[in-house]
Amino acid sequence: MRFVDDRGQAIAAPLDVCFDTQVRGDCGRTDGDRPVAAPEGFVRVRVEGEAHGPVAFRREQIQAQPDGTLLVALPRKAWLQIVRPAAPPSGAGPVKAAADATVAAELYSRADDDFRELLWRGRLAAGESRVRVPAGEFVLSLAA
């Protein structure tokens, strides 16, 4: 199995790869540009790297290339930027607290009407303004 990004470019950064078989999971870390031997009879593969994924594919969703290699395209992560006030106006207690607070960010599927299936969660510490998130169309929840 070989991994490329959503533009077909090689991935140089490490990836966490987990194969699900009928009886167990087989996980490991690999260099993104090095092919991985898929276990016989795997039913699903999950992949994530610092700048790619997370994504999961069932075996039947992955097409074999003419040479027999399984090629998996991983979506790049996007930057989520939170603009915080540079200096709160005087006497603005709640604004100052929000500027210095940790921000929790969560992504949910647009099809999840009840927001019960969390797809991704991250945090921005005080002073941080950017975090990598999975690319795509999601509902974003922010809390400070």
Description:
The chain has one helix at residues 93-100, and strands at 2-5, 14-20, 25-31, 44-49, 55-58, 71-74, 77-81, 103-109, 118-124, 130-134, 138-143. It is mainly beta and 144 residues long. It has a four-stranded antiparallel beta sheet, with no helix packed on it. A three-stranded antiparallel beta sheet has the order 9-8-11, with no helix packed on it. Strands 1-6 form a two-stranded parallel sheet. A hairpin with a 4-residue loop joins strand 2 and strand 3. The chain is elongated, with a radius of gyration of 19 Å. The N and C termini lie far apart (41 Å).
Would you list the SSEs in sequence order as H and E?
EEEEEEEHEEEE
Counting helices, strands and paired strands, the structural category is mainly beta
How much helix is in the residues?
under 10%
The Rg value, from CA coordinates, equals: 19 Å
**Which sheet architecture does the biggest sheet show?**
4 strands, antiparallel
- How many beta-strand segments? 11
Record the SSE blueprint.
Blueprint: E1 2-5, E2 14-20, E3 25-31, E4 44-49, E5 55-58, E6 71-74, E7 77-81, H1 93-100, E8 103-109, E9 118-124, E10 130-134, E11 138-143
Parallel strand pairs: 1-6
Antiparallel strand pairs: 2-3, 2-4, 4-5, 7-10, 8-9, 8-11
What labels describe this entry?
single chain, 144 residues, mainly beta, four-stranded antiparallel sheet, three-stranded antiparallel sheet
Quick recap of the structure?
This protein has one helix and eleven strands. It is mainly β and 144 residues long. The mean pLDDT is 87.
